[in-house]
Amino acid sequence: MAADLIRQKLGRQSGIVILVSNLALFVFKYIAGVLSNSISVQADAVNNLADSGAAVLTIIGFQIAAKPKDQKHPHGYGRMEYISGLAIACMIIAAGLLFVKSSIERLLRPEPIVIDSGLFIILVTVIAIFVKIALAFYSHKLNRIIRSAAVKATMMDCLFDAAVTLLTLITLALSQITRAPVDAVIGFAVSALIIYNGFLSAKENIGLLLGNSLEKNEQMQIEAAVGDTKEFNGIKSIITNDFGPNSQIVVVELSPNQDFSITDIQSAADALSLKFEELFDFKVIVYWSSKNG
Fold first, then answer.
1. Could you tell me which of 120, 128, 161 has the C-alpha nearest to residue 32?
2. End-to-end distance of the chain based on CA atoms, in angstroms?
3. Confidence band of 134 (pLDDT split at 50, 70, 90)
4. What pLDDT digit, counting tens, does each position of 74-93 carry?
5. Which of 54, 107, 278, 288 could form a disulfide with 254 if both were Cys (CB 3.0 to 4.6 A apart)?
6. Which three-class secondary structure state does DSSP give residue 287?
């Protein structure tokens, strides 16, 4: 319970930091985008606004996920973190598609980019890059502690955002030396990066919701431990149940060696359960069955 409260606190803290930072970036970037008449800068600003909404979902997700188990949900609400992570991914994809539409409009009706307030615009974009890199580093350090798909999605989004803002800075520079529709072209590139990031995040969270198999090294450890136990002929099945962070249950079904008594077989199964408890940070249920299939 104490670990869950710490997780909730750190997750909520992360959401607040990301929310405040992205709201500030949205305001300054949007002003820069309006002053420069750049669609890619404005799109980048709206992306930060979408990130603010994602931060709100992160806060809500951690809040609900920390609710204690009850009769209706005996395994708790941990999967809400995965749901909030998927919602964040959908928002990222939606923002990317919105930028595609804006870029098409700018390609069909090109407008000049103005940098009368050049110093302010450049300063905003450069600071935004460093802020996003700092947020990615912060999210990475936090994710090493709480191992959250939502926080990991935020970290990746921050890195992509830094790359996106760098592209908008390149747009401003190129627009002053060519009449080519660089704003629209860079806008497409920005959109592609954002959509790609969204799909990566969605894929991971959908996998968590559907249930992933064990990591290869974890499965190898289980197989090696069973292989060293003469009371069993091998593993029939390994089923993973993921009810949220810190709430995984792995069920291992073993095939008993009929040369041993039921008492010896059960004692060996109990010994394996204790060994797995020391090896892994998730619960492993070991049982055996002499039935085929």
1. 120
2. 39
3. very high
4. 777 778 878 877 887 888 88
5. 288
6. strand
